[in-house]
Amino acid sequence: MFDFLKKIFKGDESKKIDSKPFKKTSKPKTEPKKPAVTKSKTLIKEPNKKTKPKNEEAQLKPAKKTETKPSADQDDTPKKDEKLSFSEKIKQGLKKTRDAISGNLSALSFTKNIDQEFYDELEMTLIAADVGYAATQQIISELKDRVKKEKLEDGAQLKSLLKKILSELLQHIEKPLIHIETTPFVILVVGVNGAGKTTTIGKLTKLLLDEGKSVLIAAGDTFRAAAKEQLQVWGDRNNVTVISQDTGDPSAVIFDAMQSAKAKAIDIVIADTAGRLPTQKHLIDELAKIKKVIKKFDETAPHETILVLDANTGQNAINQIKVFNEAVSLTGLIMTKLDGTAKGGIVAAIAKEQPIPLRFIGVGEKIDDLKIFSAEDYAEGMLE
Q1: Which residue stretches belong to region Disordered (predicted)?
Q2: Structural domain includes residue 295
Q3: Is 196 marked as a binding-site residue?
Q4: Quick one: which of 246, 271, 361, 379 has the fewest CB in 10 Å?
Q5: What mean pLDDT is reported for the chain?
Q6: Can you give the residue range of the structural domain that contains 10?
């Protein structure tokens, strides 16, 4: 009898024990809440630091990591930019191009003797960075000649010589923008869609203001939706006037801007135009019409016609220069988005094939990241 009762009690106990796990999973209010509560407490306590965690583990998950990282990102970035010199900023902007070249170049320098195989691999490295065939052949030809003259035998000695040769090639397009003493000095900005004309105009405005010039912007892109609104944002940011019209002819907008600048004795007018592809002949021809209208106001204007190029387009930039130069006689170039591509060698290709002065380069997204082009700094940035 007692044995029978024991079996009954044992059976009940096993049922109780077996039911516990089911009770835990079936009650969302008890078990699942605990991890959720500890997580939320940790997230709240980390920024505040005032409430004490209930256990040491929560205290060790520290507010230091989640708190200091955001503040470091916010504080260090501007500090770094403030400390960077001009040449250091160029190097930073050309990091992707330099990484693409330097990896192969370092391998060549330290593992190869100076032989034909060395030159063949160097040729492939330069072409891969969009230096272009013609520029690459010139660089390697000069390198071979100087290696013989200086009797170099070790690949490790070539890096400084290669920088010098590249710098000499780039000097053909190192011609800073010079302001003629004419009021207003008119800069006509052209380029394809998406090259970064609007942003470049905003940055160029800031750069000219820093030089003590007064600037007025003409919103001559009357085709793209929100183009004038985007320029107005840059105008407000730089505290300069933007002349625009709701609809109308881009030539008329630019003409009005020139009249306004003349009346207010503004030093410089930067005139935006709609983006157009080199294949759109009717739109390319329209640029010539815009120039004619500008000349009716001032026969010497525009005093600078700048083509904005996106570095990501690589060798396609050569064709863009040819087409726009035929249409409007370019006087300068601005290369944008160099910080986002490994194709920075395209500047060497331009120097060899289409040597139009490269006035400025864009090496970052910030308003101060439009820099005057320097051949020496650019070569150093590519091959450091």
Answers
A1: 16-86
A2: no
A3: yes
A4: 246
A5: 80
A6: 2-48
